[in-house]
Write a structure and sequence with these properties.
Layout (H helix, E strand, L loop, with lengths): L1 H16 L6 E4 L9 E8 L5 E8 L4 E4 L4 E3 L4 E8 L9 E8 L5 E7 L1
Antiparallel strand pairs: 1-2, 2-6, 3-5, 3-7, 4-6, 7-8
Length: 114
């Protein structure tokens, strides 16, 4: 009986490993640094579509050019733009971004210096 239960648990574990899941990877280390526009790349390293559900920035000085509900297919990427309004920049020298997706974990956060 123990061996049957162990066998069933192994089957369930293998099935769980083969589930299709999106996996987000954001390349922001090489952010193109211009005065008013920054670019970064969002990759889907998983084997299921990645859906950009929502996003936020820490500063009203930014406009993130990214579409909600945008789909990134497996092994594909998109380039996102952030427009910076220097007249609205506060005292901080960093901008934080959070992207909510259907991947696990659901939130991906990062920051860059102005």
């Amino acid at each position: 009986m123990k061996s049957k239960i162990s066998f069933i648990l192994i089957i369930f574990a293998l099935a769980a490993c083969k589930q299709k899941k999106p996996q987000i990877f954001v390349d922001y280390k090489d952010v193109n640094k211009s005065d008013t526009i920054r670019h970064f790349t969002i990759y889907n390293k998983g084997n299921a579509p990645l859906i950009i559900e929502n996003f936020t920035t820490s500063c009203e000085c930014t406009l993130l050019k990214l579409e909600k509900n945008q789909i990134i297919n497996p092994n594909e990427k998109i380039i996102a733009d952030i427009k910076i309004d220097k007249s609205k920049v506060g005292t901080g020298n960093q901008i934080f971004l959070t992207i909510k997706t259907n991947a696990v974990p659901r939130l991906t956060s990062f920051h860059f210096n102005l």
